[in-house]
Predict the 3D structure of the following.
Amino acid sequence: MKKIEQLFSDKKVKYGGYSSIMIAVVIAILIVINLVVDQIPLQWDLTANQMYSISDQTYKVLDNLDQEVKIIALYETGKENAQIDEILKRYTTYSKNVQLEYVDPITNPGFVKQFDKEGQGISQGSLIVTNGDKTKIISRYDLYNYSYQGYTPQVESLAVEQRVTSAIMYVTSDENPIIYVLQGHGETGVPYEVKRQLENENYDIKDLNLLTEEAVPEDADTLLIASPKRDLSQEEEKKIREYLENSGRAVFLMDLLNIDLPNFEGILKSYGVALNRAIIIEEDKNHYMSNPLWLVPNMESHDIINPLKSADMFTLIPVSQPIEELDVKKRSLEIEPLLTTSKDAWAKTDLSDQSMEKGGEDLSGPFNIAVAITDKPDDYEEKPTKLVVIGNSAFVEGQFATQMPGNMNLLLNSFNWLQEKKESLSIRPKSLKLPRLKMTEQQSFIMSIVIVIVIPAIVLIMGIIVWSRRRHL
C-alpha cells in the first residue's frame, strides 16, 4: 500500500497523470464540439477564388423563384463529380423550390430518353433542368470553359453556376426574346462564343433574309446587323425602316469599309448618327493596347456601361471608325455615348495611306466609338425605338471575345438594355488554374533563412528548455 502511495506521490507520475487527464478532457471537448458543429448547416468556402460559392445574382434568382425546379444529374452510381455536386447543393440548401436528383443513365436509359427530344443522346455527366413542360439540357462539356493550344483543349474555368442559373431562368420564364440576324450582305454572322452566351441569357437566335421575307417577323425582339459588306436593296431598307418605326430594336455592328453603303447609312442618319469613313488612331498610351489601333476607350455613364465599370472590366476595340452625332436630327432622339476615345485621338480619312502621321484632312478627336439611341416622340404612347451602334464587330470575335470579358458583356448588356431586361446574367466563371506564388530574390532569400535557420533554431531552443526543466524535476 505504501509503495502505491509512494508511486502516486512521485512528481513524474503526478505530472504524467495530470497530462493524461488534460489530454482526455481536450479530446472529449473536441468530440463534443465536432458533434455540435456537424448539426449546424453552415459552410464556409475557403478556396482562393470562391470555387464553391454562388453569386448574389443567383441568390436573387432563387429569392424570386416561385415554381418548383428539378436538377437531374446524370452520373453512373459511385462516379458523381464531387466538385459539381458541392455547387448544386448550394442551390437546394438555399431554396426549397430547387430539387436535386441523381440518375444513373446506364441503368435508367428509358428515363433519360424522355428528355432527348432531338434524338441526339444525352451524355453522362450532363445536367437536366426541368420545370413542368420546359426543359433545358446542359451538356457536360458546357459545364467548363476551355482554351486551346493548337488543337488540344484545356479546361480553364468552371461554368456550372452560369449554366444552371441560366437554365433555371429559362425553364421558369413565360417566353424568350428572339434575335433575328440579318443575312445576305456578306455579314460575318454570330460568332460561336457570342451565340453561346446569348443562349445562356435565354435568347433564341434566328437568321433573317429580307429578300425572301415580306417583312421583319412580328416576333422579332431585336434585329442584329453584324458587319455587312454589301448594301441593302431599297425594298430591304424599307422593311427595316418599317420595323424600327414600330418600336423596333436593333444592334448595328459596322466595320470600316472603303465602299459606300448608302441604304445602311441612310437608316442610321434617320436616327441622328453617321459613320465617318476613317480609321481612329489613339495617341494617349493609356487608351490603347499593343498598337494605337487597338483602342481601350473611355466608358461613359449608361445602363449598358455601368455594370462594366462597377465590375472593373475594360473593353478592347481593335480598329474602329468614328460615329458622328448629326447636328440636324429629329427632336425626339436621345443619343448617348457609350465608348469614347481620348481627346488626343485622331482619324485618318485616306485609308490607302499606311503612315501613322496626321494629315491636313484627317479628323481630330475625341470620337464616339459606340452610342445608344432612343427615339420616343412626345405623342407616341408605345415603347420607344432603340438602337445600339458600334463602329466595329471584331471586338466579339476570337480572342477578343474569350479573353476580354468587357467586350462580351458590352454586347450582352446592349441586348438586355434593348429588351429592358433588368437581370443580366454576368456571373463570372471560376478559374481552375492554380495561382502561382511569385517572389522576388530578396523575398526568396529571407524565406530561405527563416525555413533553414530560424525555425530549426527555435525548435532546438524549445527542446533544450523542456529537457532542462524535466531534468531538474
Notes: The chain has four domains: 1-40, 49-177, 178-420, 437-473.
